[in-house]
Structures are given as structure tokens and as C-alpha cells.
Design goal:
1 helix, two-stranded antiparallel ribbon, 3-stranded antiparallel sheet, elongated, 72 residues, Alpha-Beta Plaits, alpha+beta
Length: 72
């Protein structure tokens, strides 16, 4: 029970695995673009109370494992 997150009336452990792939798997997520993508994912997750458990930005795709609160 120690890994569960709690809300005002709930206890939960929801995890989602997202993978975003560039068109035609072109390696465009390198250098400044990759850093900007990483920062944008962090900003959006922080604004929506989403915890990033794992994540990586490769040249042609982004992997993110998220823990999200159960909201409507």
C-alpha cells in the first residue's frame, strides 16, 4: 500500500505508457529539439499533476511512463 497515491476521497495507482513517434521515423529529436521536447513534457505534466516515473527522448521517438490522478 505504500506505492499508492491518495486524493481527497481516493487511493490510486494508475500508470500509462505513451510513445510518440516522428513521421516516417525521421531522427529530428536530437540536440536542441530533443531538449525542448523533454522540457515541454515536464511542463505539461507539472501543470496537470502528472508524475513522470520514467522517460526518454530518442532521435525518432519519445517514451514516457506516467502516473496520473483519476479525474473526470
Amino acid at each position: 500500500m505504500e506505492n499508492y497515491r491518495t486524493g481527497s476521497h481516493s487511493r490510486y495507482d494508475l500508470k500509462y505508457h505513451f510513445v510518440w513517434v516522428t513521421k516516417y521515423r525521421r531522427k529530428v529529436l536530437t540536440g536542441e529539439v530533443g531538449i525542448r521536447v523533454r522540457d515541454l513534457v515536464r511542463e505539461v505534466c507539472l501543470a496537470n499533476e502528472v508524475e513522470i516515473l520514467q522517460g526518454s527522448v530518442s532521435g525518432d521517438h519519445v517514451h514516457v511512463l506516467l502516473s496520473c490522478p483519476p479525474t473526470n
